[in-house]
Amino acid sequence: MSSLEGRRAIVIGGGSGIGLGAARLLARDGAAVTIVGRTEGKLADAVNALADEGLGVASCPADAMDAADVRRAVAAAADGEGRLHIAVVVPGGGSIKPVLRYGDDQFSQEVDRNVRPVFLLLKHAGNAMVRAGGGAFVAVSSTAAVFSTRYIASYAAGKAAVDQLVRVAADELGRLNIRVNGVRPGMTRTATTAGAFANPAMMQAFLDGQPIARHGEVADIAQAIRYLAGPASGWVTGQLLTVDRGHTLRAFVDYASLRDLPDQGDPSTATD
Q1: Active-site pick, 102, 155, 227, 255
Q2: DSSP for 148-167, written as a single string
Q3: What does pLDDT average to over the chain?
Q4: 155 a catalytic residue
């Protein structure tokens, strides 16, 4: 893979999991990387872990939902003239529950939890990329954006919005030499998914729905991010690269058969 020497990169969610995996590959190929997250201790552990591998990265604590924090993190990652070349954003999430049982405000809050970090980094890193004469932006979406994922409606809706934001931003920003792409991971082993991976029946259900019967690992997704962040993908923009061992060729698992969920047909389980 081509060198990233001289390029400055920011990875929001870089303290662990997919973000840390992406930061590792960007730094290994020569980029000056700043990892960003809410927890200073987690960031420090990540910096130390990469240092043990001979990789130097900087860190900046920030909340990806807070505009001022994101603006400050971009400034910390940019060079002395405010230029940035690569931006990766990972955070998201949602609840597992029937669609009729979300709280009225909970649903929109969880959708925003997936979309707002992408928009805020796109806005502030995008302006820094304009100053740099171009750049590469990579959002982490999900396979939930492209097929029915029963019982995670807020997450699916949020990730579908991320995909459309990627497309529209790519269309607008191409003339400025800014490429905007996304990666759609399938079920991947991280700290966030540890509970699922501890459930053998759930993990078997995922394997049964995949042509390639192997669980996803951080490195699988990080390699896709690294490709979209670098010059090897210089003619690629507005694309969503699905990395899921073929899961979207089939169907999502039925969480109702694997977890104890409220019965949507029972009015007594309704939320106000």
Answers
A1: 155
A2: --TT-HHHHHHHHHHHHHHH
A3: 96
A4: yes
Q: What is the CA radius of gyration of the chain?
A: 19
Q: What is the DSSP string of the chain?
A: ----TT-EEEEETTTSHHHHHHHHHHHHTT-EEEEEES-HHHHHHHHHHHHHTT---EEEE--TT-HHHHHHHHHHHS-TTS---EEEE-------S-GGGS-HHHHHHHHHHHHHHHHHHHHHHHHHHHHHT-EEEEEE--GGGTS--TT-HHHHHHHHHHHHHHHHHHHHHGGGTEEEEEEEE-SB-SSTTHHHHT-HHHHHHHHHT-SS---B-HHHHHHHHHHHHSGGGTT--S-EEEESTTGGGS----GGGTS----TT-GGG---
pLDDT confidence tier of residue 140, bands split at 50, 70 and 90:
very high
| Order of strands across the sheet that contains 240-243 | 58-61, 32-37, 8-12, 86-89, 135-140, 178-185, 240-243
CB 90 within 8 A of CB 192: no
Q: Measured between alpha carbons, how far is 61 from 173 in angstroms, rounded to an integer?
A: 28
Maximal C-alpha separation, the chain: 60
So what's the pLDDT on residue 272?
A: 60
Which amino acid does the sequence have at 131? R
Residue-level pLDDT at 267:
86
Q: Is 257 exposed, middle or buried (0-12, 13-18, 19+ CB in 10 A)?
A: exposed
